[in-house]
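Here comes my example:
=====
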Amino acid sequence: MNFAELRFWGYLLAGLLVIGAGRAVVFHRAPGSREWFDRAALAVLGVFLLLCVNALSCAIFVTAVLMTYFGLRWIVRRDAGSTARYLWLLIPLQLAPLFYYKYANFALNQVLGGDFNTLRDLVIPVGLSFYLFQMVGFVLDTLAFKTPLPRFLDFLNFAGFFPQIVAGPIERRNDLLPQVQSFRFRLDRDAINEGAGWVALGLYFKLCLADNLARWMPSFMTSTDNAWMIWVANLLFGFRIYYDFAGYSLVALGLGRCLGVRLTLNFRSPYAARNIQDFWRRWHVTLSQWFRDYLYIPLGGSRTPRWAWNVMLVFVASGVWHGAGWNFILWGALHGGLLVALRFGGRPLPGPAAWLLTMGGTFLAWLCFYETRFSVLGEKLAALFTPFAYGPAQLRAAGAVLAGGDAIVLGALLALAGLTLLAEWWSLKRAEEPYHLLRRPVCLVFLVILTVLLAPSRNNAFLYFAF
């Protein structure tokens, strides 16, 4: 579901109109079925919107839901006393589509040197990494805490709540399941006003900032020996991926609020972080919590002498989650190494210096995220640590990339992104609440105007649809 496309909003409006008409008929003839109808309508709406994306994504999602629910029910009924041993069967089955579509080509062709041509052009079904991890977490929580299995309709709504199914947040059983179990379609003015503000902010992030910054990246990605150009590309990508992914998450949050469901705020102004640990408390919050609870803590967490290995393993796994390639593994390892170094770093640096060091490491690591050609990645990393790559000739060459008014346009976009970050920092400092200033009514009107005026005519899919 691409929130940046008018088609999505048209399908959503059509679905809500059909549900409204159906409610009027059903409630008149069978008033006792109101709660069931609303939950069933929410499930049908979610499957319908996913089917509008493409049939393959919908089919894989439905298959995963059926396999997870009835596999978990079989485990619970078969042996309530020792269910853990059956996880070795169910979880690999849950993750099998993810391995096939996302990792088979890398594992079999690149790592093992195979020649399976059918694996080379596989397109990852949208949302696969997100909803499968959510379902795995559901299985683990159900068995670990011995909680009862919900009705199938409620599990379907938990796994397929349409605002967050495609790119998160990755919700937990205790947070989302009770809300969908009691779900009702309501016209709550306060909830709709609050949700609309989040939607407007998310679309501003995506359409005004991320999509406009994206068009300038190719101009700076060509050089492998000009450190200035590489850093500009890193800066553009860092801004783009944040405003793209956070934009989706905020729209999802807003749609959930409009429907009376409170989703997790998945981004909390991560570029305001003053150390790498705080960055990961603010960036993709639900994924960080997933790896903490289901991998880091079971490995012993920080209570074991092997804590550094645990950190590295978790972040390498996080890199693998983001993509199948050596560059993603290196990206995860760099962040793990920065976290280990932070713990051994001794006395904290002053605020501005700590922020600069954190952002320097973060934007350096972004190079490993977008440069998928591993040999080229090595050349670019070498250039960043080569003093001669920062010479005057390289600076002039970087400036010559932008002709005429292009430099002014890009400078204005970066200034707008910078002002947005300042508003985020101000929100945290004055209200201790992410995005507080940006969600003020006057500011939202200004952001909507900017979005309408500056949104590119060509729609770009959200970056995390590819993960």
